[in-house]
Specification:
single chain; mainly alpha
Length: 94
């Protein structure tokens, strides 16, 4: 029984190899595809770099961060934190 399985597998392998070789020869006879002249060759990395530079420039123009605005925001955050801490403290009304 094992011999029969081995013979069948070898036959399938040979058949696969012959069909693969036939396909390869058929592809070699086809002329190569013509290069696409309508689409210019553009590097995708260059496009991404350009978009990144534009977005960084937009961010810089949209919101100029000054030292005064940072200090104001920091004071607001501290005030909010102190208010939340005061709410959490237990009251001694007992």
């Amino acid at each position: 029984m094992r011999k029969l399985i081995k013979i069948a597998l070898v036959a399938l392998g040979i058949r696969w190899f012959l069909s693969w070789r036939k396909q390869r020869k058929a592809q070699a006879e086809l002329p190569p595809p013509a290069p696409a002249a309508a689409t210019p060759a553009v590097d995708p990395a260059d496009e991404l770099r350009q978009k990144l530079a534009e977005s960084r420039a937009d961010e810089a123009d949209d919101e100029p961060a000054t030292e005064e605005s940072v200090e104001n925001r920091r004071a607001e955050v501290h005030q909010h934190g102190r208010a939340a801490l005061d709410e959490m403290k237990p009251s001694d009304e007992g």
